[in-house]
Amino acid sequence: MTDKATRGAGDKACDVDAIIVGAGFGGMYMLHKLRQLGFRAKVFEAGSGVGGTWYWNRYPGARCDVESVQYSYQFCDELQQEWEWSERYATQGEILAYVNHVADRFDLRRDIQFDTRVSAATFDEDKQHWLVETDDGARTTASYCIMALGCLSSANLPDFEGRDNFLGPTYHTGHWPHEDVDFTGMRVGVIGTGSSAIQSIPLIAQQAAQLYVFQRTANYTIPAHNAPLDPDYVRAVKADYAGMRARAKRMPAGIDFKPNLGSALEVDDAERRRQFEMRWALGGLTFMGAFGDLLLDQKANDTAAEFVRSKIREIVHDPEVAELLSPHNVIGCKRLCVDSGYWETFNRDNVTLVDVSDMPIEEITPQGLTVAGRAYELDAIVFATGFDAMTGSLLRIDIRGVDGLTLQQKWTDGPRSFLGLAVAGFPNLFTITGPGSPSVLTNMLPSIEQHVEWIADCLCYMRDHALGRIEAETTAEDAWVAHNREVAGESLRSTCSSWYVGANVPGKPRVFMPYIGGFPPYLEKCAQVAAHDYEGFALA
Ligand code: N01
Q1: Given a cut of 70, is residue 7 above it in pLDDT?
Q2: DSSP state of 134
Q3: Could you give the dihedral angle defined by the CA atoms of residues 436, 118, 499 and 424, in that order, rounded to the nearest 10 degrees?
Q4: Residue 132: what are its φ and ψ, rounded to 5°?
């Protein structure tokens, strides 16, 4: 046992006070914050560079669907003043340049061990610390273990019959090569029509001789209307960055914009159309802010869905293709996509939409793939098939808590956590934007920063009070899980087969994973827990 005098300050017998897993936005800021507070911290990162999701997702057209001036750190005003975003929606390359700038500016790399994957993390009850094993065979001990794995970082590669038989190159959008991929003159197949596909298809279509898009479920997407940023707008944002950040924190998704809170059903057709046209012209995710009840009332939702279908019919010349592209599920239930020229791409002569909704892809062959007995000859295949979201990256690490309980065992029926920050049975373990927190339903950056700051405050509290162990109480966890389930049930978002509920991964338990109660009440709850001496946690 660690003696009381050394506890809380971080057990000096440990290699470090905190191990952070992942060097994306979460891990980078966590490292910076803990170092500032005098903790010894070390990051393990599987990639060769910083950036997490933006390090891996290099497919053509990859950009953020949250505006660049908001999808950025706010913890350092000098940083947000000095960095210049060039476009309304930043490209993957620009975001990667930004995270590299941050890593340099705060000298983060010296405490990040790249090209190192964490394979196991075990809580040692005698010593009250974590033992973390990495794929280089090393074992590192720490008082705290902080998982900063990202919500969408474990690729979902469906087990298609014959998948490995294909003779040409295959790509997954979430693990795109670092060197340029040139599809010029090729027959390319893209499997999937989620955000990654919707962003990459228009660009792949410009290169490929022939592009086949294999669509299982038609998806909703809103034009980005991306453009270079107006310097006057940037000046205005920078003059009141604090104001924008504060307004964002009062919004359910942590994004500063002006929603219309009225009902879609209480206005006449002309006014409803006017509101949708206005949001369509603005572009992007805030389309769902056209009315306050779009995700609460099926009839209200139907009006938005029909509006988008009418746009598809306007844009896509071939009525049969337009119909096939038209989704008929709840708009906004799966995450809304944001595109640049997606629907228009289906007017190109070299693009063919293949419906695999009723008749799935039968087999991948050496020359391509077959659907409904028809062979599609391909030179390259792009799997835009998404992620084992929110839990995938945590569960592929062998995490063992009290009494040897594994996280896999604990989460057999789906993830359970207190606030998406901690799990009962796993003391001194924190999850940045873990399941049960708003995370993917918000702008990830403020959500990440809030978690990092909450964890950092918690570790300071532990140090100040000479405490060495913090563990979520089962009762607090149960209550939070029940609350999550209740608020999810109030939203149409929980009603469809999305990755939010794990439906895209065969065998995954169906649980609505992110917290849907909104960013402001979540912030309040986290602050309240901390203010009441970490109510809901057992401290020792
Ligand atoms: O993945 P997805 P994604 N046969 O799961 C299809 C974020 N993101 O990488 O809908 C045939 O959405 C699947 O079909 P279905 C964002 O949060 C953000 O595109 O399950 N098809 C679907 O069409 C996003 O939501 C940005 O029927 C199969 C597609 O593959 C999240 O990442 C950009 C199949 C997967 O879509 C995931 O997006 C990109 C099968 N066996 C991503 N299995 C930004 O803009 C799966 N599919 C910030």
Answers
A1: no
A2: E
A3: -20
A4: -110, 125
- The pLDDT, as a whole number, for residue 101 is 98
Q: What is the C-alpha R_g of the chain?
A: 24
pLDDT digits (tens, 9 = 90+) for 255-275: 999 999 999 999 999 999 999
pLDDT range class, residue 185, cuts 50, 70, 90: very high
CA distance 448 to 457: 14
d(CA 164, ligand 1 centre) in Å? 21
Looking at the CA of residue 440, tell me the nearest atom of ligand 1. 17
For residue 238, report the distance from its CA to the centre of ligand 1, in Å: 34
Q: Hey, is 90 helix, strand or coil?
A: coil
Residue 237 has pLDDT above 80, yes or no: yes
Q: Residue 202 Cα, ligand 1 centroid: separation in angstroms? A: 16
Report the pLDDT value the prediction gives residue 152, as an integer from 0 to 100.
97
CA of 343 to the centre of ligand 1 (A): 17
Alpha-carbon gap, residue 393 to 150, rounded angstroms: 8
pTM of the model: 0.96
Backbone angles phi, psi at 395, to 5 degrees: -80, -15
For residue 12, what pLDDT is reported? 78
Nearest CA to ligand 1 atom 25: 335
- Give the mean model confidence (pLDDT) for residues 70-97: 98
Does residue 2 carry a pLDDT above 50?
A: no
> What's the 3-state SS for 21-39?
ECCCHHHHHHHHHHHHCCC
Mean pLDDT taken over the chain: 96
Dihedral pair phi/psi, residue 142, rounded to 5°: -155, 150
Cα–Cα distance, 295 to 308 (Å, whole number): 15
Distance 420 CA to ligand 1 centre (A): 23
Ligand 1 closest atom vs CA 65: 45
Report the C-alpha gap between 7 and 464 in whole angstroms: 10
Nearest to 446 by CA among 183, 46, 117, 73: 73
In order, the DSSP letters of 337-393 are: EEESSHHHHTTSTTEEEEE-SSS-EEEEETTEEEETTEEEE-SEEEE---B-TTTHH
Residues in the chain: 540
Identify which of 385, 441, 443 to mutate to test ligand 1's pocket (most ligand atoms within 8 A of the CB).
Answer: 385
Give the pocket of ligand 1 (CB within 6 Å). Answer: 63-65, 152, 158, 173, 191-197, 199, 216-217, 335, 338, 356, 360-361, 384-387, 440, 499, 504
